[in-house]
Automatic annotation (TrEMBL):
<keyword id="KW-0412">Isoleucine biosynthesis</keyword>
<dbReference type="InterPro" id="IPR036230">
    <property type="entry name" value="LeuA_allosteric_dom_sf"/>
</dbReference>
<dbReference type="Pfam" id="PF08502">
    <property type="entry name" value="LeuA_dimer"/>
</dbReference>
<dbReference type="InterPro" id="IPR005675">
    <property type="entry name" value="Citramal_synthase"/>
</dbReference>
<dbReference type="Pfam" id="PF22617">
    <property type="entry name" value="HCS_D2"/>
</dbReference>
<dbReference type="Pfam" id="PF00682">
    <property type="entry name" value="HMGL-like"/>
</dbReference>
<dbReference type="InterPro" id="IPR002034">
    <property type="entry name" value="AIPM/Hcit_synth_CS"/>
</dbReference>
<feature type="domain" description="Pyruvate carboxyltransferase">
    <location>
        <begin position="6"/>
        <end position="271"/>
    </location>
</feature>
<dbReference type="InterPro" id="IPR054691">
    <property type="entry name" value="LeuA/HCS_post-cat"/>
</dbReference>
<dbReference type="InterPro" id="IPR013709">
    <property type="entry name" value="2-isopropylmalate_synth_dimer"/>
</dbReference>
<comment type="pathway">
    <text>Amino-acid biosynthesis; L-isoleucine biosynthesis; 2-oxobutanoate from pyruvate: step 1/3.</text>
</comment>
<comment type="similarity">
    <text>Belongs to the alpha-IPM synthase/homocitrate synthase family.</text>
</comment>
<dbReference type="InterPro" id="IPR013785">
    <property type="entry name" value="Aldolase_TIM"/>
</dbReference>
<dbReference type="InterPro" id="IPR000891">
    <property type="entry name" value="PYR_CT"/>
</dbReference>
<keyword id="KW-0028">Amino-acid biosynthesis</keyword>
<protein>
    <recommendedName>
        <fullName>Citramalate synthase</fullName>
        <ecNumber>2.3.3.21</ecNumber>
    </recommendedName>
</protein>
<keyword id="KW-0808">Transferase</keyword>
C-alpha cells in the first residue's frame, strides 16, 4: 500500500529560544542543527536573520545541512512593496533554502496589533510570498492565531491561507498560537481548510498550553495536513511546542500512523532519539525530564514487584513499544516495594546475575529494605545499589580509606571589600600505605569536599580526572529537629557514562560525602583499578 509522505519541520532553534532559561550560543545552534539533520527531519528553522546579531551570523554562510535550512520573518510592512522592505530583504539575503513568513490570520489581531486593514494584510501576504518565490526560495506562511481567527471569522482566516497558497507558498501552516484549541476542534477546522487548500500543502504548528500539542498535531494529520512543526523535547515559550521527541516515534511505531504515512526518520535513526534528546539538554545545561515519553529515564521503568514479574515474562505487558527502538532501556527499579524479580533483573543488567534460589538474594533484599527504612533510596542511585549488591554477593576492594574530613564555612569580606561566603574542605585519605591530605576551596561546602577528595588519590588520580559532577539533589527524609537528609549525586565521565549515588545522614555534609565516596569507588571499580 502506498503511504503518504509526512514532512517534519523543526523550530527548536527559534521557538526553543523562547523557552525560559534557554539561551543559544552560535555554537549551540550549529551543534543542534547537526543533531536534527542526523535525526532526519526535513526542515530546520534556524531563526530570524536581521532580528539579532546571532541569527544574522548563523545565516551568513552555507551550513551543509541535508535538511532544508529555513529563515523565519515577518511579511512586508503595509504601505511599501516587498522589494523595498528591509525585513524581507534580510530574509532573501540569508543563506537559506526556504523562507517561512509569519502573518496574522485573525481579523482582531490584524486591526489591533498591526493597525492595518484586512485587505492590507492580505496584500502583505500575497506580495511577500510572490517575491520570495520569484527569488527561487521555497516559501511557507505561518498563519498566526489561525484557529482563534477561524472561530471568530472563518472567511477571513481562510482568505489568508488561500492568498498564500495562490501566491505560490509551498506550505500554509495553521498555527494554534496560544495553545488553547482542543483536538476535536483542530480536526474539525482542518477538515474545512482542506476543502480550500490541498492537505499536501498544509502544516500544523501547535503550542502546548493545554498539554494537547502532540494530540492536536496528530488530529491535524488525521484531518489531512502533511507537515508537522515542533521542537525537540517540546521546548518553546510558556508551556512549549509540539514535542517532536514524542511525535516522531508515535508516527514510526504506532500502526495507525506507520501504516499510512512515511517520514524522513527511519528505524535506525530512531534508535538515536534518546541520545539526541539528552544531548540537547546537556548543551543547554538542563536536567532531562525523567518522565518524558519514549526518552525519559523512567519511560520504561517498573517499580512494583508484581509488575516486574510480568515485565520479565512479557515486556509488552507494561511497555507499549520496545525501549531499544528509541535508544532507551528497560529499568526494573529496586526499592522497598521490590521483590526478587526486580532484584534479579537489575543484577543481570549490572552484570551480577545469580540464581533465583541463591540465599544471598534474600540477604540482599533484606539489606535493601533495611537501608531504605533508614532513608536510602536506590531506585535513582544505581551505582550505590551496585556497590551494596557487590558487597553482599562478593566483595568491593578498599581502594582508599577516608581517615577524616572537615569543612569550614566562613562569611567574610574579601580583598575587594565584597561580602561573601567561602567554603574550604580538608580530606585525609589512605591509599595503601600512603597517607594523603588535600585541601580545597569551593562554591559551597559540597563542591569544596568534592574538589578536595579528587585533588589527590595517589595512584588512582588519573582514573578519576575525567569525572564531572552534573547533578546534586537534597531531600529531607524525616522532618523535625531530628531530620534525616538524603543526598543524590550524579556524575559523568569522559566516555559519557552517567551514574548516581546516595548518602543519608542527619548531617547534610556527611550525607553528601557518603555519596561522593560511593561515586569515586564506583568509578574505580568500573575502570578495573587494582588495589
Amino acid at each position: 500500500m502506498t503511504r503518504d509522505r509526512l514532512y517534519l519541520f523543526d523550530t527548536t532553534l527559534r521557538d526553543g529560544a523562547q523557552t525560559t532559561g534557554v539561551d543559544f550560543s552560535l555554537a549551540d545552534k550549529q551543534a543542534i542543527a547537526r543533531l536534527l539533520d542526523d535525526l532526519g527531519v526535513d526542515y530546520v528553522e534556524g531563526g530570524y536573520p536581521g532580528a539579532n546579531p546571532l541569527d544574522t551570523q548563523f545565516f551568513s554562510q552555507p551550513n551543509g545541512l541535508k535538511a532544508k535550512f529555513t529563515a523565519f520573518g515577518m511579511t512586508k510592512r503595509a504601505g511599501r512593496s516587498a522589494a523595498n522592505d528591509p525585513g524581507v530583504a534580510g530574509l532573501l539575503d540569508a543563506e537559506a533554502d526556504a523562507i517561512c513568513f509569519v502573518a496574522k490570520s485573525w481579523d482582531h489581531q490584524v486591526r489591533m496589533a498591526l493597525g492595518i486593514s484586512l485587505e492590507e494584510n492580505l496584500d502583505s501576504i500575497r506580495d511577500s510570498v510572490a517575491t520570495a518565490k520569484a527569488r527561487g526560495r521555497e516559501v511557507l506562511l505561518d498563519c498566526e492565531h489561525f484557529f482563534d481567527g477561524y472561530k471568530a471569522n472563518p472567511d477571513y482566516a481562510l482568505a489568508c491561507a488561500r492568498t498564500a497558497h495562490e501566491a505560490g507558498a509551498r506550505w500554509v501552516v495553521l498555527c494554534d498560537t496560544n495553545g488553547g484549541t482542543l483536538p476535536h476542534e483542530v480536526e474539525r477546522i482542518v477538515g474545512e481548510v482542506v476543502k480550500v487548500i490541498p492537505g499536501s500543502h498544509l502544516g500544523i504548528h501547535a503550542h502546548n498550553d493545554t498539554e494537547q500539542a502532540v494530540a492536536n498535531s496528530l488530529a491535524a494529520v488525521r484531518a489531512g495536513v502533511r507537515q508537522i512543526q515542533g521542537t525537540l523535547n517540546g521546548l518553546g515559550e510558556r508551556c512549549g511546542n509540539a514535542n517532536l521527541t514524542s511525535l516522531i516515534p508515535t508516527l514510526l511505531l504506532k500502526p495507525a500512523y506507520a501504516d499510512r504515512f512515511e517520514i524522513g526518520v527511519d528505524a535506525a535513526r530512531l534508535e538515536n532519539l534518546t541520545r539526541i534528546s539528552r544531548k540537547l539538554d546537556e548543551l543547554l545545561n538542563r536536567m532531562p525530564d525523567h518522565h518524558a515519553p519514549y526518552v525519559g529515564s523512567s519511560a520504561f521503568a517498573t517499580k512494583a514487584g508484581i509488575h516486574a514479574s510480568a515485565v520479565m515474562k512479557d515486556p509488552s505487558t507494561y511497555e507499549h513499544v520496545p525501549p531499544e527502538s528509541v535508544g532507551n532501556r528497560r529499568k526494573l527499579l529496586v526499592s522497598d516495594q521490590a521483590g526478587k524479580s526486580n532484584i534479579l533483573a537489575e543484577l543481570e543488567r549490572l552484570g551480577l546475575a545469580i540464581d533465583k534460589d541463591d540465599p544471598r538474594l534474600s540477604r540482599l533484599l533484606g539489606a535493601l529494605k533495611d537501608k531504605e527504612a533508614q532513608g536510602y533510596a536506590y531506585e535513582g542511585a544505581d551505582a550505590s545499589f551496585f556497590l551494596l549488591a557487590k558487597r553482599i554477593l562478593g566483595s568491593v576492594p578498599e581502594f582508599f580509606f577516608v581517615e577524616r574530613f572537615s569543612v569550614n564555612v566562613e562569611r567574610r569580606w574579601n580583598e575587594r571589600g565584597e561580602l561573601g561566603v567561602f567554603s574550604e574542605a580538608i580530606v585525609k585519605v589512605k591509599v595503601g600505605a600512603e597517607e594523603l591530605i588535600s585541601a580545597a576551596e569551593g562554591h559551597g561546602p559540597v563542591n569544596a569536599l568534592d574538589t578536595a577528595l579528587r585533588k589527590d588519590l595517589g595512584k588512582y588520580q588519573s582514573v578519576i580526572e575525567d569525572l564531572k559532577l552534573i547533578d546534586y539533589k537534597v531531600r529531607v527524609f524525616q522532618g523535625g529537629t531530628d531530620a534525616v537528609t538524603r543526598v543524590l549525586i550524579e556524575f559523568q565521565d569522559a566516555a559519557g557514562d552517567r551514574w548516581a549515588t546516595v548518602g543519608v545522614s542527619d548531617n547534610i555534609i556527611d550525607a553528601s560525602f557518603q555519596a561522593l565516596v560511593d561515586s569515586m569507588t564506583y568509578k574505580l571499580l568500573k575502570a578495573g583499578a587494582e588495589v
